[in-house]
């Protein structure tokens, strides 16, 4: 496949329900009540439980992997939180290729909350910047000693 600067990534859209948020809390052992307890968040004067910010990083990587397939490795990813996202809202990951190398891509992404009309209601996270190695994590494009995550035998990346 050929890549070009300015090329858009296929968007990833996901409705995040309360059941999804409870499952995520269980998977990550992050039981802060802000993320799943409607009574607790009502006392905080919030409209609904707040989506855990870690979810946005997972969705940004999912967007990249859905597009590039299993032979890509997200070498670096950073993003900033901009607005809260609440249970039952729909988010969309959007992105653009900003740099193309022989064995890597640099991407700029963002996560937006989708409004009732399908347009952007607000930006939840962004800008996000990702450097993606094409091939394998230890193959071409890898820079010795600069991996921002760990690599397991199964090929999955994890945070240090």
From TrEMBL:
Domain of life, source organism: Bacteria
UniProt xrefs under SUPFAM superfamilies: Thioesterase/thiol ester dehydrase-isomerase (SSF54637)
InterPro entries reported in the protein's UniProt record: HotDog_dom_sf, MaoC-like_dom
Region (Disordered): 134-160
Segments forming domain MaoC-like: 13-100
Sequence ranges of Low complexity compositional bias: 141-160
Pfam families associated with the record: MaoC_dehydratas
Family according to the record: Belongs to the enoyl-CoA hydratase/isomerase family.
Protein name, entry field: MaoC-like domain-containing protein
